[in-house]
Amino acid sequence: MQVSNLLVEGVNLMLLGMGSVFIFLTVLVLAMSGVAHLVKTLFKDDTHEKMSVQLTAPQTNAEGDEIIAVISAAIKRYRAK
Hints:
Blueprint: H1 3-42, H2 47-55, H3 61-80
Subcellular location: Cell membrane
Keywords: Cell membrane, Ion transport, Membrane, Sodium, Sodium transport, Translocase, Transmembrane, Transmembrane helix, Transport
Protein name: Probable oxaloacetate decarboxylase gamma chain
């Protein structure tokens, strides 16, 4: 065989391999997206919404002052070492 024929066969094999991997990954992403959508619709739960509301609730001023005091004491103790 000539070198040019080997190069053409190599490029064909490369394109076939890369194309099959691309198609496989595309099908995998679509399948995972479909399953995620299916799980979201079947197992609708409000706990996530409740948790996000609890996490974003503003802290009271007393809690904030206490946290600042604790952090300040920890910094002073660390620097004293």
